[in-house]
Amino acid sequence: MTHPPDPGPAPVLALRDVSKSFGAVRALRGVSLELFPGEVHALAGENGAGKSTLIKTLAGVHRPDAGQVLLDGEPVAFHGPGDARDAGIAVIYQEPTLFPDLSIAENIFMGRQPRRALGRIDHKATHAATAALMRRLGVDLDPDRPARGLSIADQQIVEIAKALSFDARVLIMDEPTAALTGSEVARLFGVVRTLGEQGAVVLFISHRLEEIFQICRRVTTLRDGAWIASEPVDGMTEDDLVRRMVGRDLDELYPKQDVTPGDVALSVRRLTREGVFTDVSFEVRRGEIVGLAGLVGAGRTEVARAVFGVDRWDAGEVDVDGRRLTNGAPSTAMAAGLALVPEDRRAQGLVMDMSIERNIGLTGLRTTVKAGLVDRGAERSRSLDWAVKLQVKYARIADAVSTLSGGNQQKVVLAKWLATGPKVLIVDEPTRGIDVGTKAEVHRLLSQLAADGVAVLMISSDLPEILGMADRVLVMHEGRITAEIPRSDATEETVMAAATGRAAA
Amino acid sequence: MTVTAPDHAPPAEVPKSSGTRLVDRVFKMRELAILVVFLVMIAVTQAGNSEFLSEQGIKDLLLNATILVLVATGQSLVVITRNVDLSVGSTLGISAFAAGTCLHGGGNAVVAIALAVLLGVGCGLLNGLLVSLGQVPALVVTLGTLYIIRGIDSIWVGSRQITAADLPGGFVDFGSGGLSAIPWLALIALAVLLATAYYLKHFGSGRELYALGSNPEAARLAGIPVRKRILAAYTVCGALAGLAGALYLARFGNVDSGTGNGYELTVVSAVVVGGVAFTGGSGSVYGAALGGLLLTSINSVLPALGVSSVWVLAINGVLLLLAIAVDRIVALRVAAALKKRKARHA
Q1: CATH number of the structural domain spanning residue A446
Q2: Is A380 among the domain residues?
Q3: To pair with A182 at 20 to 30 A between CA atoms, which of A36, B88, B102, B253?
């Protein structure tokens, strides 16, 4: 099935020495890439390596600061996503954007419906064309069904059908398998292979290395914005690929200190929220970092929210430091010494238009309020203290947090919660979307906290982070904890097997 | 690894289109439900008072609904795009007075109606521009224009009043006449309703209104001219409010600076009772029209049953809450049904 790499045809789409900076961050540094017709090409790299920027450059969202995008060998300048689409480049994001109220057929042909006389939509032709696309993709989806309620996998199929409907020659798939089950992945790969055989180019991004080896012919690796290698997958091992992606001592990025776990600080027993998660039990000890892994949508965030009291649970118990928590009451959870750093820092973790000082001060209002009034002096000194401890980079402490970079915003959220002096800290995706340098700082901080006796529960979709930082790994799959793996046995293989519901060997 | 099969992976599939049928049925039911409630209410009233469905009775029922149906049709277009137009009452009032002034000065009826529509178009354009360019929530923008238009109306009209005596006889006759029990005005409203429904279903720009109400971000990505569509929806809404103003004049013959005051809330109620989702992207103008018919009929039903009309407002409120509750429950059940099927599938 895998064709030998053949140097004959010219690349359909190519990047030549492309660079792109955002402020001081150099997201891409002289990257080149060639995509040949009929090939499934993998793009590998750690989070923050520049994969997203590269995709967005190809998709016309970003314009390169230097270098060229070549289409059929000719330099092109995309002024927006529309230009790239017209050139036959389609991007399928991890979370598709559909119209939930409209039918699948309408979703695919919106704005481009076949017309009858007087510009009226030809509903029959639209339906037929959609049915034909579904047959071509080998899936059984009713064109008249509304998009609401479709699984992520089916939504992706609709996006792929949309791309095919305007004869896309290049299909870019950004972590399409992150939220899929095993059988859904198999179906998607069937579709991808078919597209390749029909001459389309697929640029495939995945953090699951085995998928790259399973479906791709060549792989391009990026690291810290720079091009590392473009080579055939044949003959490579996963270790080779990881070495190219990481390229540095893992200890540096994951400065985990060895600790001896103390008493149980957080104890969750048989926690259930109907339809969301079931029978979840675990313990976190003082000084321990416990990783909670799993696919997007496995229920990890929901468990954290329930433990903290943001959502109610239907059954089970939660103890923090021996104190039983009240169902659905964040204030008692906070009083017991629990802190939650939420997944979405912009929407849930911060008040974006408020100053750094006040954001950090929010959790301390209990102690800084005197006679009903906030003691601004106390608030400021407390905030400054934590901002300095966490090395937040800011101009003035009175600046709005929205002016800070993503990594520094994350530090402010951490400061806000660390200022409460928690016994148990739950962090949900603590390093998502922040640069490598800050990431290492956050890791060092978490490690230091654990060494100081704080119990840390770390939810992360970043497998190397889980493997690098956690003393123990809990894995969730479809609302249940399916595995508990000690640090010594935790590998990408064992964790992913449990996360995707494939029984561990 | 486990996958070696080429081509299409075997889809261990869902029984085809059962999801479609279920959801379809629910949404068709939504309009059907209002129709049933309406018919039951009429039947009960007729049973209690055999005079109710006389020729004049039917005519009154239809005449009362006409103006609300027109404005609700326009409002639906805006609500479908996930916006709202609260200025329709003010627009109706000012265009009714403008049409009346034109006729009072000896103007032609067609010119007067055209003037009212044009004035409505102007108000709609103003709203549409502010909402689409200003990136300000429609609720706030149109609350502002509600007061602005009402204010201009008050300054212009002052304490003046237009009565049926000021209007040409033919115009007043047109307002109360019709084809036996069916008033001319109702026929106009029906024509507008049918045309709008046809447009929404069969024209690309009509479907795009649903698309951008359903997911504005996806609409932008799909290359839909979002601002242009929103502007168009507001313009048509304003035009229909203007037309409704002219018909109001023909029907009642009596216009002053307070005409149409508070009407926007009745209109929004009719739209919501009719199942047009306030979150955009779903519902139909037929539903909104039925909602309008239901709300205005209560006005006639209660007196016919010997109930004091002071109950009307409270009953309208209950209907509104009921409609929203039904929508919410239906949405939850559909979601649960789809989820269950997915679970079975997996």
Answers
A1: 3.40.50.300
A2: yes
A3: A36
Residues of B in contact with A193 (CB under 8 A): 6-7
Residues from chain B contacting residue A113 (CB–CB below 8 Å): 204, 207
Does residue B27 sit within a domain? no
The total number of structural domains that make up chain B = 1
> Pairing between strand A277-285 and A218-223?
unpaired
- Give the model's confidence band at A363: pLDDT under 50 very low, under 70 low, under 90 confident, else very high: confident
Check B11 against A190: CB less than 8 A apart: no
> What's the start-to-end Cα distance of chain A, in Å?
28
Nearest to A189 by CA among A214, A171, A172, A169: A214
The range of the structural domain enclosing residue A376 comes to 346-417
Rounded to whole angstroms, how far apart are CA atoms A14 and A34?
4
The total of structural domains in chain A comes to: 3
Burial class (CB in 10 A: 0-12, 13-18, 19+), B246: buried
Query: Would the CB atoms of B14 and A1 count as touching at under 8 Å?
Result: no
Closest CA to A309 of A268, A278, A279, A344: A268
Residues A324 and A374 in one domain: no
pLDDT > 90? residue A49: no
Check residue B125 and report its DSSP letter.
H
Indicate the average pLDDT of chain B. Answer: 86
Is the CB of B338 less than 8 angstroms away from the CB of A149? yes
- The verdict on residue B4 lying in a domain is no
Sign, CA dihedral B176-B179-B180-B183, equals negative
- How far is C-alpha B155 from the geometric centre of its chain's CA atoms? 29
Q: What b-and-e string marks burial along A443-454, b requiring 16 or more CB atoms within 10 Å of the CB?
A: bebbbebbeeeb
Contact (CB<8Å) A189/B17: no
Amino acid at A104: I
Residue type, A252: E
Average pLDDT score over residue span A157-164: 88
Residue A140 lies in a domain: no
Can you give the C-alpha Rg of chain A in angstroms?
Answer: 25
Query: Are the CB atoms for B213 and A102 separated by under 8 Å?
Result: no
d(CA B48, CA B46): 5
**CA dist., res. A437 & res. A229, Å (int):** 23
DSSP code string of B66-110:
HHHHHHHHHHHHHHHTT---TTHHHHHHHHHHHHHHHHHTT--HH
**B154-158, long-range: CB within 8 Å, 24+ apart, which pairs?**
B154/B257, B156/B94, B156/B97, B157/B97, B157/B256, B157/B257, B158/B257
- CB contact under 8 Å between B20 and A144, yes or no, is yes
User: What is the total residue count of chain B?
Assistant: 346
Answer yes or no: is A457 within a domain. yes
Please name the member of A102, A139, A191 whose beta carbon is closest to the beta carbon of B211.
Answer: A102
The answer to whether residue A128 is domain-embedded is no
Alpha helix stretches (DSSP H) within A369-486? 376-389, 406-418, 436-451, 463-469
**Quick check: A17 and A54 in contact, CB under 8 A?**
no
Range of the domain at B208: 32-38+51-333
Mutation target for B interface from A121, A145, A276: give the one with most B CBs within 10 A.
A145
* 3-class SS string, A25-72: EEEEEEEEEEECCCCEEEEECCCCCCHHHHHHHHCCCCCCCEEEEEEC
What CATH number is attached to the domain comprising B241?
A: 1.10.3470
Strands A201-205 and A40-44: parallel
B206 within some domain: yes
Please write the tens of the pLDDT for every residue from A88-131: 898 887 667 899 999 999 999 988 888 888 889 999 999 999 99
pLDDT tens figures, A171-215: 999 888 877 777 788 888 988 888 888 888 999 988 777 888 989
Residue A234 confidence (pLDDT) above 80:
yes
User: Which pLDDT band holds residue B13 (cuts at 50, 70, 90)?
Assistant: very low
Which residue is it, tokens 């329709």? B88
